[in-house]
C-alpha cells in the first residue's frame, strides 16, 4: 500500500511535506523540491526547523494544537503564494505521530491580477449579470444565428437567463424576448399558457407572443410528460395547435430552454413525483442542441478578471475609486467555490466596494465573512520582520548547497554565485558555522 500512496503523492500538483512528532522530515515530494529548491536527499531525515523558521511552519502549530487547519494563505517569498492544508497524524493508540502539510500554489492567479492592473479595459460580451468574453460564447453564438432549439444547462446563478437574452439580442430577430418559468405556473394552466386557447374567446399563448422573436422556457424539466411530448412534436413539425383548436399554426419563434446540470440522465419516460414530473423525456431532449454553462468553481482562470469587472461596476455606482486586489485577496477569490455563482460574487464585490477605504488595496478581511481566508502570518508570525521570508529561504539554499558540495565551502559559494567571504558571513549570521 505504501508504494501506491507515494505514487499518489508524487502525482499531485501540490507540495507535500510529512514530519514526525519531533519535526523530522519523513516525506518531501517532487513539487516541494521544485517550489523551495531543496532536494529530498538533503531535507529528508533532517529537522524542518533547520530549513525554515519555526514560526512560519504550519506543521508545528498543528501538532501543538492537535487541530487541522485548511485554506491558510501564506507568501513564502514575494513571487510565491500558496494555500496550506495541514492535518495532525495519530497512531493506533491515538498518540500524536506527526503531521502532513499540502500546499497549493496560486501564484499564477496573483500574476494574472498584476497583469490586469495594467490593462483596465475588460472585453466582456454581456453586462454584469453574466460577464463572459465573446470567445467563450463562440459555439452558442453560432447556434444563436439559426432556428435550432437550444437547451442551456447549469447551476442556479451561472447566467442561463442572461445568455439567452444575449442570444436574442445578437440574432437579428425583430420580435420580443419572452420568458416563461415552467415551475411557477399551475399544471392545469401550463398548456394554455404555452400554446394558447381556442374557444369562444381566443387566447394567445407564449408561442404567439414570441412571434419572430425568442421564447425562453425556464426549468423545462418541470413540465408534465404530456406537455413535453406535445412540445417535442411542435419542434419537429415547426407548428402547433392551440388548446381546444384544430388549426395548425406555423411556429415562427426560436426556442431556448433551461434546466439544472443534473439533467444529463435522460430516460425514455419521466418519473412522476407527488408534485410534478422530474426529468426531460428523450423525445424532447434530443430535439435540442445542449450547452453546459460552467459554475464559478470551474472558472478559476476567469475569477480575477471577472471580479475586477464587477468591482469596477460596484465602485462606479457608489462613486468611489476602484481599489486593486492584493495577493491574499486573489487567493481568497480562487480558494472559495462560490456556490451561489455570479449573484454571490457580485454581492461580495459590492461588499468590498462599501468597506474598503479610499487608497487601500483589497485584503482578505474585506470580503464577506464566508469568503475570508485565515493568514499564516496572523496565526504564527505576528512578530516576524518583513525580510523574514527571504532570510529563511536564503538559509535553506545555503544548507542545500553545502550538502550538495559535500561540505566544501568554496564549491558551495560558487554554486550560490557569492564570494567565500560572503558565505562565511552568512554561515555566521544563520548559526551554521
Automatic annotation (TrEMBL):
The keyword Isomerase appears for this protein: no
Ranges of residues in domain PAS: 1-56
CDD domains in UniProt: AAA (cd00009), PAS (cd00130)
GO molecular function: ATP binding; sequence-specific DNA binding
Keyword Repressor: no
All copies of domain Sigma-54 factor interaction, residue ranges: 134-354
Listed transmembrane segments: none
Gene Ontology biological-process entries: regulation of DNA-templated transcription
Keywords associated with the record: ATP-binding, Nucleotide-binding, Transcription, Transcription regulation
One Pfam family named in its UniProt record: Sigma54_activat
Protein name stated in the entry: Sigma-54-dependent Fis family transcriptional regulator
Source organism (scientific name): Paenibacillus selenitireducens
Amino acid at each position: 500500500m505504501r508504494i501506491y500512496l507515494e505514487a499518489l503523492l508524487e502525482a499531485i500538483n501540490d507540495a507535500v511535506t510529512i514530519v514526525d512528532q519531533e519535526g523530522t522530515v519523513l516525506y518531501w515530494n517532487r513539487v516541494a523540491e521544485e517550489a523551495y529548491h531543496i532536494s529530498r536527499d538533503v531535507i529528508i531525515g533532517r529537522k524542518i526547523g533547520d530549513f525554515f523558521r519555526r514560526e512560519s511552519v504550519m506543521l508545528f502549530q498543528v501538532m501543538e494544537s492537535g487541530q487541522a487547519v485548511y485554506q491558510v494563505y501564506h507568501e513564502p517569498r514575494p513571487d510565491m503564494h500558496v494555500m496550506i492544508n495541514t492535518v495532525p497524524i495519530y497512531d493506533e493508540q491515538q498518540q500524536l505521530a506527526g503531521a502532513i502539510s499540502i500546499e497549493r500554489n496560486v501564484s499564477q492567479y496573483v500574476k494574472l491580477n498584476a497583469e490586469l492592473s495594467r490593462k483596465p479595459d475588460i472585453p466582456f460580451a454581456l453586462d454584469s449579470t453574466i460577464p463572459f468574453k465573446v470567445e467563450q460564447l463562440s459555439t452558442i453564438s453560432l447556434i444563436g444565428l439559426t432556428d435550432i432549439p437550444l437547451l442551456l444547462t447549469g447551476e442556479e446563478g451561472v447566467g442561463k437567463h442572461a445568455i439567452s437574452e444575449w442570444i436574442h439580442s445578437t440574432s437579428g430577430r425583430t420580435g420580443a424576448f419572452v420568458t416563461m418559468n415552467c415551475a411557477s405556473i399551475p399544471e392545469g394552466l401550463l398548456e394554455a399558457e404555452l400554446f394558447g386557447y381556442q374557444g369562444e374567446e381566443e387566447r394567445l399563448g407564449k408561442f404567439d407572443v414570441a412571434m419572430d422573436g425568442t421564447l425562453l422556457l425556464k426549468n423545462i424539466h418541470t413540465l408534465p410528460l404530456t406537455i413535453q411530448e406535445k412540445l417535442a412534436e411542435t419542434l419537429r413539425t415547426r407548428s402547433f395547435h392551440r388548446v381546444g383548436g384544430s388549426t395548425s399554426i406555423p411556429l415562427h419563434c426560436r426556442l431556448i430552454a433551461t434546466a439544472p446540470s443534473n439533467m444529463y440522465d435522460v430516460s425514455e419516460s419521466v418519473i412522476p413525483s407527488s408534485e410534478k414530473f422530474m426529468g426531460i423525456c428523450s423525445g424532447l431532449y434530443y430535439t435540442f442542441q445542449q450547452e453546459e454553462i460552467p459554475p464559478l468553481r470551474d472558472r478559476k482562470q476567469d475569477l480575477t478578471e471577472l471580479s475586477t469587472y464587477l468591482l469596477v461596476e460596484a465602485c462606479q455606482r457608489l462613486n468611489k475609486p476602484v481599489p486593486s486586489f492584493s495577493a491574499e485577496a486573489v487567493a481568497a477569490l480562487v480558494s472559495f467555490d462560490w456556490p451561489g455563482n455570479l449573484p454571490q460574487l457580485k454581492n461580495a464585490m459590492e461588499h468590498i466596494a462599501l468597506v474598503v477605504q479610499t487608497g487601500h488595496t483589497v485584503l482578505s478581511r474585506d470580503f464577506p465573512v464566508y469568503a475570508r481566508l485565515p493568514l499564516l502570518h496572523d496565526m504564527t508570525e505576528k512578530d516576524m520582520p518583513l525580510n523574514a521570508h527571504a532570510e529563511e529561504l536564503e538559509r535553506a539554499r545555503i544548507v542545500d548547497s553545502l550538502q550538495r558540495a559535500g561540505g566544501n565551502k568554496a564549491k558551495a559559494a560558487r554554486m550560490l554565485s557569492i564570494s567565500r567571504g560572503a558565505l562565511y558571513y552568512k554561515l555566521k549570521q544563520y548559526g551554521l558555522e
